[in-house]
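We were asked to recover a plausible sequence for a given structure. The inputs and outputs are reproduced exactly as logged, with field labels preserved.

PROBLEM: sequence recovery
POSITIONS: 351
GIVEN STRUCTURE:
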């Protein structure tokens, strides 16, 4: 691990020398100087071939974004929640065909038709808890999400008939991890995923329990000025978006997806396959990953958007190529992060 970070440091020094002529630097021009920033990396054939830091991680204290700055991943966290469930499934502790009324006591009647795998690929039809939480409410937790749903008598649609992205689903999955592992969600991730891979700076953040090292704080643009808005009423929910990480740690995770260190390769490949509805129609989502095509190749990715963070982890496995963009700002809109990653990708390929 020490050798890896030393190599990364040398690489960053060398790339800084050519920063002025770097076309990717131009793409992130508005992230530089006193602006909230970004950490951008390209991984090719098992190596970080580009990694640059832009702007400020902490404007008030003039702390710039650095190679090891930790950003709130938001929904990029979902791939780790899905992995935790699949680890427990591999051990026989969880069955993806369980109905939710088997898992959670006093769950509404519609839980009899919703299975665990419906949660994983966003076909459950369960209402999104964020619709119940005002922006100025006290922070809610995954357990609070379960209580909201227990008191809600209906669903958007019958499980398996439609695809609708659901943060609620991943909060429930985190609670399942706790119930069947007999550990807190944050501890399970640490002991079963982060520590085995050497991801020493990655964690599911729980105030007064752990601390985020080298933390990048979030900012929102208001009336032409950047205002620190790092947390919201939903920021304490872990399963759908509560993980912090940085580029060096996500590089280790990226490589583990090729090597089968945490899950068997066959299981990992299943997470990258489009799910199907009851009538056989495919959906553009696997297990914790969006799926699309990019110039004839399968691209798997996940964006992350929360109060003041916009991120994307974008992979083309057949090319052994990945793009990581972590930012601590509330613009652009989440769906535009795919365009931004592909803009970086095109620039890299062209040069």
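RECOVERED SEQUENCE:
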């Amino acid at each position: 691990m020490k050798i890896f970070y030393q190599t990364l440091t040398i690489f960053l020094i060398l790339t800084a020398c050519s920063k002025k002529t770097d076309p990717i630097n131009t793409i992130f021009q508005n992230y530089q100087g006193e602006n909230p920033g970004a950490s951008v990396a390209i991984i090719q054939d098992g190596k970080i071939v580009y990694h640059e830091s832009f702007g400020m991680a902490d404007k008030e204290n003039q702390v710039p974004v650095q190679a090891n700055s930790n950003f709130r991943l938001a929904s990029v966290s979902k791939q780790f929640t899905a992995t935790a469930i699949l680890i427990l499934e591999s051990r026989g502790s969880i069955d993806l065909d369980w109905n939710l009324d088997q898992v959670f006591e006093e769950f509404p009647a519609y839980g009899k038709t919703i299975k665990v795998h419906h949660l994983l690929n966003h076909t459950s039809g369960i209402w999104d808890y964020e619709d119940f939480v005002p922006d100025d409410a006290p922070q809610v937790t995954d357990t609070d999400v379960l209580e909201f749903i227990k008191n809600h008598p209906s669903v958007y649609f019958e499980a398996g008939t439609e695809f609708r992205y659901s943060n609620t689903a991943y909060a429930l999955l985190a609670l399942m991890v706790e119930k069947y592992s007999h550990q807190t969600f944050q501890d399970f991730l640490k002991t079963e995923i982060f520590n085995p891979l050497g991801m020493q700076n990655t964690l599911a953040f729980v105030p007064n329990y752990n601390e985020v090292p080298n933390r990048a704080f979030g900012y929102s643009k208001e009336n032409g000025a950047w205002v620190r808005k790092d947390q919201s009423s939903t920021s304490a929910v872990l399963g759908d978006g509560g993980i912090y990480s940085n580029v060096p740690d996500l590089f280790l995770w990226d490589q583990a997806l090729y090597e089968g260190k945490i899950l068997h390769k066959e299981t990992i490949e299943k997470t990258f396959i489009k799910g199907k509805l009851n009538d056989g129609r495919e959906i553009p989502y696997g297990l914790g990953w969006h799926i699309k095509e990019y110039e004839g190749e399968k691209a798997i990715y996940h964006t992350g958007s929360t109060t003041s963070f916009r991120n994307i982890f974008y992979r083309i496995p057949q090319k052994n190529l990945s793009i990581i963009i972590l930012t601590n700002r509330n613009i652009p809109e989440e769906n535009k992060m795919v365009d931004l990653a592909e803009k970086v990708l095109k620039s890299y390929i062209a040069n």
